[in-house]
Each structure stands twice: as C-alpha cells, then as structure tokens.
Fold each of these.
Amino acid sequence: MRTEIVHIGAGELNYEIRNIMRVVDKLKALGADINLENIGDPVAKGEKVPVWIKEIVSRASMEDCAYSYCPSQGVLETREYLAERNNRLGGARIDADDIIFFNGLGDAITKVYGFLRRTARIITPSPTYTTHSSSEAAHAGVPPVTYPLDPHHHWYPDTVELRKRVKYNPAVAGILLINPDNPTGAVYPEEILREIVQIAEDYDLFIIADEIYQNLVFEGARTRTLAEVIGHVPGIAMKGISKELPWPGSRCGWIELYNRERDPAFKTYTQSILNAKMVEVCSTTLPQKVIPLIFDHPEHEAYVGKRKARYKRMSETAFNTLKEIPSILINRTNGAFYMSVLFREGVLSTRQSLPIENANIRSLIESLLQSNGKISLDKRFVYYLLAATGVCVVPLSSFNTDLQGFRFTLLDPDEYSFLRMVNTLAEGMKAYV
C-alpha cells in the first residue's frame, strides 16, 4: 500500500481462547472427540436455560417495540432499574445517565480503552482476561503495563507491587481489577479492594472494575462491589447478563460510571465513550427490556444460588483431585466458573510429550509445534494434552503472564463427566512431566 494502513496496536490483538479452536477443528476432521474446557459459555457446555426465562423473552419478543431502536445509552426504564438496584447497596450513587449499554462487554472494553489518549495507560492484572490486556495494549501500540496476582496467596493482587509500579510509571492513568477474577476464580476481600482504591486516590487515577461475575460468588466468600468501596475516586464498573442468567448470545452488557462529576478530564473521557455509542445508534433492544423482569422474577435468586452451589462443588472436586500433584500449584476457586493450574518453575521443558495413538493427529500436532517456532512451554503442554486426550484447555501464558499453566472451566453440568475430565487432566500432567 502507498501509505501505512495497519493500526499501531494490531500486533497486540490475540485471543488464544478462540484461536485454539482452529486446532480443534482440524483434530475433529481427523476423528478426534473433543471436550471443550476453553470457553466460558454455560449454555454451550450443556446448562439448560430455565423455561421461565424463555417465557419472559418470548413474551417480550411479541411486542413491536422490542424490534425497534432504543435510546443510544440504553432502554431508560432498565437503566433506572439498574441505578436503583446499585443505590440500594450503598456507596457511590448513580442515576440512569450514569449507565451506558453495549453489545456485550467485549464492545464496552474496546470502547473504554479505545477512547483513552494513546499515551495514557491502564495497569492490568497479570494474569488477566485476554480481551482487557489485548485491547489496552492495542490502544497504546505497546505491550500492557501489569501488576502481579500472587498464586501463593489465593491469586490476590500484590498491592505493594501495584503501588510501586503506579508510582514509577507516570503514564498510568487507571487501574483494572476483575472481581471475581478471570482466569483464576479468585474473589477479592474488601480490604484489598480498599487498598486498590487508596492507591488510585493517592495517585489521582480512576478504576475500571470488571464485575461480570459479581453475582457468582460462592457461599462463604466475601467481597464488595466497586460502588461500595470507591468513595470519591472516579470509576467504571462493567456488568452484564451473559454469565449470570446465562445468556452469552444476548451480547448485552453495560458500564456504570461513578463520580464522573468530580474530575473534568474523566467526565470528558466518559462522554466520548457515550458519543461513540451514539454514532452506532444503540445496542440490542430485546435483552435490555427483559433484564428487570428476569432479575425480579421469584425464581431468579434460587436459580442463581443453585448454579453457584454446583460450581463450588466442581471447584472442590477439582482442587481435591489435583492438589497432591507435586509439579503444580492450585488454589480453590471462590467465584465465577474457572480454575487455573500453575506448573511449578522448572517443571516444563521442550523434551516432554504425551503418547498420541492416532498417527495423523500426532503428525498434525508435531507439525503445528514446529511451525509455530518458539512457543511457550505451557502452550506446548496444552497442544499435547488436546491431541492425546481430547481435553481442550487454555494456556495460562495467553492471559498476559510469564507464569506457565492452564485454565479450565467448572461448567460441565454432569458431575461424573466433570470428574472424569479432571482425572484426565491429572493423569495427563503426571505423564507429561
């Protein structure tokens, strides 16, 4: 091309959670039976959407207004409902104008980072959900600025290190936290959240909190929403219905803006995000319209409670099965529906492999490993595990970290099937190392 057309951050956009599906498709063509543990889609994993949710959606779909544009910021009645719901918790108060709807949180994430000044950075956890780290890096055109989550302390943020990295990097304008966390399933105690808020206040930053799993905190774990701890610090909370209902295909998420009037730059920045949404006209109408009806339904709380209880059982099953393996470090999951396994330092090498019975599959995997050049050691394990057992997990290094391991889901509704999968993981790791 006569002029450069590639965005400065194009090379930072990578999503291994979906990329591995290309390998899966090739293996399926060779006759492999695959167990997908890479994508957090409860419905695809076999969870049944309750009839009462389907009836609410069906009735709403019979109304003509469900097929029309809604206000660019989102359905007013739903924004009013969500603002009131937030305000009942205490903390930062909002109204309908402080809420903006998007076509899923992926849309919200790209806008929140995309409309930052290029030299302004958001410091992100490591490991962290790929959409955040890739979008933040793409907006700046350089790798992410990160702070560590500590696998030796329940995957909690290392707030001492966070403060240091904020102090000595003046480009940092905001802090990202994900609570409950993806990929680790950690749930952050109130005192850690308040420490992060204090760092933001001390250095005049804003906070982004991805709270898509906020209603999937297991019994016994305690945390707070950003609104409850943020005080006077400007902030953005990201929420949605894709995990809680579950309805990932709705592509319906929203952000809540806290204390936007307290800082002129933050107010102008968040207005630019709304302006970008207005250029698109609006987000999908139907899912927005049914949110109050579903959340207020008498069966909703019990339904979510049963799902949380099942995920907690799966977490305990996986933890108790894998904890005695000497080559790994594993923590209990306290929220969301993921678990991360960390290989101890020095355990993995390029000399390791797993036996693959199908010669065509073995040839394919070996050729992929050779053609990819120098790939991470945990990705190498993931490829061998996939080819040898059919279990598809995601390498931990793809979540913007140097740590080596993998993430799997707790979603299988069949507890016996889940236990078989976890036993397969255990046997695969033992055989590999």
Amino acid sequence: MQTIGERLEDARKKKGISIREAAESTKIRGDYLQKFESNHFDIGLTEIYTRGFLRSYANFLKLPADRILADFAALGHGEVRPRQPSREIYGRMDISVATAGEASDRAAPPEDTLAETAPSRAQPRYPRSGNPNLPTGPDPAIIFKYAKWGGGIVLLIVAVLVVRSLFNGGGSATPAPAPSRSTPASSQAAAPAPVPTERIITLVALDVVRVNVKQKISDDAEGEDIFLGTLARGQRQTVPWTGPIFIHASAGQNLEIEFQGRRYPTQFTGAGRCAMN
C-alpha cells in the first residue's frame, strides 16, 4: 500500500508539473510540499495548518482529500473531524488619521505617570555637618518635559516656514506685501499643509495566514484584487490604500494591519473580512 507521500508524488508526476509549479498554483511553500511527499509532516506549524495544506494539495492533485487526511490521522496526528461549512464574520474597522504629535503623545505615557509608577529611589543622605535645607537643583524630569515642548514648538515653526516658502516660490515673482506693524503676527493664517494623495498600509502576519485585499465598490460588491497571497509568520506586506478596500483573511487572529506606525487587529477570528474606508 502506498504511503501518503508516494500517492502525492505519483499524482504530481502524472500531471507533469514540478514542485515549483505546484507551489505557485496552491500558494504553499515548495519545501512544505517536498516534505509532504517525503512523509515528513513536521513543518514547524500547528496541526490545523498542516491538515489544511494537505487538503489543498490533495484537491489540487485530484486526490480524495478526506482519505488522505484519514491516513494522516492514522499516523497519530489527531482525529478526523467532519468539515464544517465556512462562515465569514464581517467586521468594520475605522482608522483615524492622527498627526505626528498625537501619535507620539499616545505612544509615550506622560512623564508624571512614569514618575508615579517608577520605584522611588533612595534619596541621597546629607552629611551631618552640612545644611539639609540647601537646594538640590531643578528636577531633571521637569527640564526634559519643557525641553520636549520647546523642541516641538520649534519643529512646528520650521514646518510652517517651509510650507510658506514652497507656496510663495510657485507664485509670481512679485514679492508679497509686508504685514502692517499694527497687525499682530498671530493673526496671519498659516498656509495649509498639502494632503497626501496616496496612503500605505502594512499587513503583518502573526502566524501563517492567507490574505486577499480587494477594492470596495459598495458594502456588498467587490472589485479587482490588490493583493493575494499567503504570509508566513513574521512576514510584512505593504499594500496601497487609495480608496475603500475589503481585507479577507483565512485566520483573522493571525493578521494585524499597521498604519502610520500603529497596529490594529482585524477584529475577527477564523475566516472573515473587514472593510477600510
């Protein structure tokens, strides 16, 4: 009686395709397929993914997938469970575009909170001959806080000046009239910053997951594929986000979406999709 690997290898050779062609068609790594054909099923993934890859490969080779999985379970890899109909869980995720200042304030906790949660350090002891009422100097935490605020104000002023110079350089050669001395400088409105026309999101795989990103035409209609593939654990994939999209995932708990340095969960488990507008 042929083993699982021998049946897979014979079926592939009868179809006249190579391991590389089979990997491209099934979206399964070639080294996994070679191990399956060599009867090595320990590929470093959980059993549910191993069973899923075996089923996909058997269906691709026109072999009875249920019998392949039954033989796989007979080797001591778990019981054969009836396949339940897939159910998609729909979710909606809204991502608000935050400024760089807000992102930094959210990422770093306030200095006062750090000072309260940090363990208190032993205060230096004064010599018996000295005066304990002598000042010890300003608190370094307060100095750092004001220095950070001052640096942020300076960067904001520089950004406003750069934007003004860009807009003034693209106009006519006639210099703009100087503001009146009686008009305070704060009353002059700064030119708005240019709005980016294209955004980028990054798909971050916490474990093996198959992802399909499609254009969103309406709440129920989908357009062309933007990305389709299987991401390994730790792999990152950038995707352009120029309009509403749907993100399908075979296992929502294994996928996170990164935007402007922050990560967002897909808010569903198992096979499902989420929308980004």
Amino acid sequence: MDKCEVAIVIPVYNEDKVVAKVISELIERYPSYTIIVVDDASKDESCKRSCIQGVFLLKHSINLGQGAALQTGIDFAKERGCGYIVTFDSDGQHNPEDIKPFIDRIKKGDVDIVLGSRFLGKSENMPTIKRYFLKLSRFFTWVTTGIWLTDSHNGFRAINIEKFPQFEIRQNRMSHASEIIGIIKDLKMKYVEMPCHIRYTEYSLNKGQSMWNSINIVIDYFVGNLIK
C-alpha cells in the first residue's frame, strides 16, 4: 500500500444536492491527495453521489454523528500512513483554495495543527445572529480550555497526524468541535489560526442548521465536562 502524504476527510450526512460538486472540486485541484468520504448513514442519496472514481468511500450503517464520521476517516487515513489530515465540510461552505496554504504552513514543522478562522478571513452572507453567537462562544472555549481563538467552531483544519497518532475524537456528535480544542490542550499541540473563506449559500442557509448546531456544540460539550 502506497503511503499518502495528505488526506482530506469529508464527513457527509444528507448532502446529496451538493456533495458531488464538493468532492469533484477537491479531486480536480488536489489530484495527489487522498480523498476520504465518510457517509454517516445518510437518508438521501449522498452515498450514491459520493461514489466517485478516486475517492475512498466509507459508510456508517447507523447515524453516529459528525465527530464519529471524522474519526472513522482519521483512522482510515492513519492506516494508509497519511502524514497530514485536512477536515473539510461537505455542504459547500469551505473553499478548496484554502487547503494549500494550510498544508504549506503545517509542513514548516513549527505547528502541529492549523485551525481555520472565518473571522480572520472572509464570510459571505453570514447571518448576524450566527456571527454574534460564534464570537460569544470564544469565551466558553477559553474558560473550558484556556485557549483563546477567534473562531472556535470551524470545521476546516489541518492536523499533523503522523506526529500525533493519539489524536482521537471521542465526542460523536457536534460537540467534537469544542472537544478538539481540549485535545490540543491535553496533547500540548502547537497551533495557529489562519484565515479561511466560508460561503453561506442559499442551500446551507435554507437547511437551518447553522445557529442550532452552534448552540448544541456548546450545550453538549458543557454537559460532557460536567459529568466527567
């Protein structure tokens, strides 16, 4: 089995309208990267749409949540000997052009994880309430982890998994975004934020998930920390 240098892990759940376009853009721009798609038991045709030549398609038999889908992809990438992992959303909000600067940065070797920030970069059509809530959530992240970030709930990141094979997400659902900040602290990973471009499209806004997902992240992670 040939060792891969960079893997892009894409968790998918009910994104059949856009997922093929997202994957195709990544394949076209990064033909040498390993593309790993994890379908989290979608109820629509996401799995069928993700079945594209050159892609490793994994499927959960039951819905486990985005955190679990990411970890499934990470485990597969580690098995293939990948050195770096990029986590990338399947709804079309992330910009493929941002991946190269992230990989170039982490390859310098002075940081272990690069975190995307829409507040350092550009956000198109972000709802005002979403903007305020994300900024407020920075304080929660700082209180629980001691790490201050401009954007603590961004799903776009690059990880040096070869250096940190013990990097493991245990929160199955949306609270994994906050958990990852805790992992950075626990593993003493060197981190940096870099600007990224988030595109809030009519499709993603109509799904109505943005605000409630952010609230659930905070609640789930807060409850999880209380019962430890």
Amino acid sequence: MRVLVVSHAHPSLSLGGAEVASYNLHKGLRACEGVDTHYLARVGAPTPRHGGTALMSMRQLGGEFLYYAEDYDHFLISNRATEEIERDFVRVLRDLKPDVVHFHHFIGLGLECLFAARDALPDATIVVTFHEYLSICHHHGQMVKTGAFKLCYRASPAECNGCFPDISPARFLARENFIKGILGLADHFVSPSQFLADRYQDWGLEPQRFSVIENGLDVASVAPPRTLPEPVAEEPAPRRSRFAYFGQLTPYKGADVLIDAVTRIPDSVWGEDSILLVYGGNLERQPQAYQDKFAKLVEAAGRRVRFCGAFQNHEMPNLMRSVDWVVMPSVWWENSPIVIQEAFFHGRPILSSNLGGMAEKITDEVDGLHFRSGSPEDLVDCMVRALTEPKLWDRLRAGIKQPLNHVDCAARHVELYQQLIAGRGMPMPEGRAATPMIA
C-alpha cells in the first residue's frame, strides 16, 4: 500500500501540533509492514522558492518533499495558483500513484489540492484529518466570537456575519457550500477527538464518514518525577509545587488567566518553593491591548513566574524533569493538544479548562483537575489543592494512561485505509517497492 501524507507545513520549518501529528503518522507508517509512505508539506515565505516549480525537495530525507504555495485566500481556504496545482501537485500524484492520499491539513495548500487528488486519482482513497474548526469558522478556526472572547456554539451565515459585519451572509453561505462541496470528495474524515468530530457532524458532515483516532506521540524517553529535596526537621515537608505552561502566548491559550490566578494565591499557601514556569513565545505578535494586560499581570506576579521562552518538542523530556504539574488554561475548544499527550507520557497530572478536547482527554479527579474556563478564581482553587492536598499528585499520576504512540497510531490508520479500500470495492493493494523521491 502506498500512502501520501499531505501536511500544511513541515515540522522542521514550522513546529506546530498539526505538523508534528502529520509527520509522526508518516514516521509510524514507515514502521508498518507493506506500506510505502511519502510526505508532502506546504512551504511559503520566508523560505525562498526554487525556480519555476512549486516542488522543492527535502534532499536529506527520502520520500519527503515540499510544495511552495503563497497565493492563498484565507476566507475560502483556497489556492489561487491553480495552474501550479494542475502542473506540480498533480505531477506528484501521477508519479507516485498512491493508494491513499491523507490530507492532515489543507490550510495554505488550498482545497483545490483535494479536488486535484480526486480528479487525478479517481480510484484512490482520500482521507482528511481535522485539527480545528477552520472549515466551519472564519475566525482562525477558533469558534470564538470576535471582539469578545465568547465561545460560539453555532455557525451559520447570520452568526458569522455578526462576527464579520463587512462580509455578507450570502458570502458566508457561498463559503460554506464551497467548502462542503470539496470535502464531499473525500472518502473519510479523521478527528483526534470526539468533540471535534461532533462539531463537524453538527455542521452537516455525515457521522458514518468519521473515525476518531488520537494523534500518535513519538518520544524516546520518559522524564522521571522531579527529585524532591530531603525533609529537614522543623521545616515544611517538600511538596509538588512546580507548575508549567507550554504553548503560545495568545489570548486563546489563556496564559493571562493562569498568571492572574498565580497572583491571587495567598503567600501562606504559595510559600517560597512554588513557581510557575512559562514556556512560550509570540507575545509580541498579539494585539496591543492583550500585551498591555499581560504586562500588568506579569508585574503583579513578580518572582512567582519565570519566563523560559519558546521551546522545541525534542526539549520536552528535559523540561519535564523540573515540572510537577502542567496547566492548560485555554479559553477555546481545543481539539487534542499535543501537550496533553506529552504531559501524560511523562506522568505529569494536568490542571485544565473544562472545555472541548481538554475535558475529553483529561478526566477530572482521575489524571488531572478541571476548572471553569476563563475563571482565575476557579483555577486558584485547583492550584491551592495541588499545593496543599496530601497525596493528590500521587493519586492523579497513578490514574494516567499512556498515550498512543506513533507506530500504533499508524497501524490504526492502516486498518482504516484497508476498510475504506474494501468498502469502495477496490482490490486490496499489495506491498509496493519504495518510489524514488521526486526531483
């Protein structure tokens, strides 16, 4: 079976959760017997383009190549450079002749690539993995109202026009029809969370065309629990008092809620041993009002918060060595953040907002604690429990289940591919020799 995994970016150039998930699938498929896997990732500025073709090789990595795409319409998730799709993207499809084309995203590439795959390979099986609500929501796929951080419970042309008054309901209806029409060419959809799948089904996609498969994690070693200092007579017993935030410093991620909560914890509870480690960046790219709010909160938090800057995924095992608790204060319906899998892989309980995929993946009082989204007061209660409740960390750590690894994830995908191929009445593809990388 030959599989082409298509991603909106390569993790060596853009290290986001969806990029990592798509690449982990590709790596997992390489470990599956009888599977010949290839990986195509979109690239754009500031990476320079190679000559007159959109295709760019990853010469150090066999079976992987880049596709340059910049002429992009964010509203329609559309690529205006259709002549390049017809010439270069279709060339990849016809040269490889994959049995399965798996789109792990199409942002930047454009939905036209999905249409091209169906047109060029009418007998191929096409699978789409969703990572957020971009097809439904023009507001960065967040399902959060513009102007105020209120969750959006229902997308419709009228509701969307309320968020974007300069775009008419008729245009939003046309957008919805266009996107649904292209998605209708796919054979199947994969969602890493049931919550996300339910949202797309409520939007109008058929439930029978969905499978829920968690993204696979590829981490080599487990970070042991942080070593606590030896107890000293007549001093407070050492405790699990190190909290960490991993993620971008955007309004949607709720880091401001977390820092606000830290400032509210009484000194008698916080003590001298507690600290919040913030691993994240891109604050300078956020709206000025948010930057100003964040700066005031940071000033109030003082020495309770330590900013450690952005991080790379390969650093996570080492960073986890100094962490007891991971906090996820997002104020939007996250799908399946990779931070959850990483924290659980290393045996760290999570304090999380009670929303979406976070509430689905983290079980309250079993492997973590939930707090009301956007409420620093409720988060204070959770953090106070973490600092004062005896054996809470040990109990929640014992409730953690190991996340799905990338090889097992790939095996589940291969099983799905086989079912889909059989369901279309196509002969089951036999093992094929690896195809040389497209130059």
